[in-house]
Amino acid sequence: MLAIRFDRFGGPEVLTPVDVPAPVPGPGETVITVEAAGVNLADTFQTDGSYLDASQLPHIPGGEVVGRTEDGRRVLAKVTHGYAEQVLCTESALIPIPDDITAPQALALLTQGLTAWHLLRSAARLQPGESVVVHSAAGGVGSLAVQLAKEFGAGLVLAQASNPDKERLALDLGADGTARYPLPQRADIILDAAGGTLFQQALESLADFGRLVTYGNASRIPHPPLDPARLSRLNASVVGFWLRPTLARPEALSGPLKQLLDLTRQGRLRPVTGTEYALADARQAHIDLRERRTTGKIVLRPPEGRGSRSMPRGSNLVAHTAGDA
Asked: Residue 219, CB half-sphere, CA atoms under 13 Å: how many?
């Protein structure tokens, strides 16, 4: 079957289409034939070695898929090797989804949706009437955070984005205005995944008892040391957030995800979708994501039909033995 693998750390250029054996389920496992695989910024950090060490090479990235089990169930699942035509998942981790939720919508809700939900509820602890600034507001997390902030009762939601088209998208999703520093009014909550200059500007723009929630470093600029005395002078706080340990808490996944799915089916939450690539073009998807050319959820589509045995014509595939997987 077709999969995307990297054998060394680096940029998008290390992602290579390969022909690997179809997975064989063990006890308690299920094979999912992939309808679509989600692409996340964390995948780019896996690829460059930020999240993995050399002992884990070669590696097939990808943490989420929508697909069908061998008995026909349509499911959403967190996985470990999602950039493939078929993946393994434990039966207990499968999340049934209805046919009226598209694969990109469902994938947007699993990682980005849960991140946005917990940023506002668990990390920032948003209270009704508070003001919220969302950085990267046209991205997968940001576009959902803008909408959820309004849904959860924020009094003012401002969107920061890298260009006017992305600002317009955020406004269309319900943002009350755009955010440019210095802010005209200090904010109660600022959600930042960019780091770098934006983080520093945001820190100086917090209201009394404001919370700056940092959950990524898309700028790839190292943060300078943060002086606790500076936080005391600002009368504010910086909160770090990472989804993976959050989901280990009881009820951190099922309850919030059910709410996200319900809001989507009711039309009150609109996951931004449409950025799709063929599975074999994962390299280009990573390039576009890193260069901030994308909006909303990015997905990879395997070749149509049962792909566990068929390979697309013209693909530059590198065969390897089962032991290389």
From this structure: 17
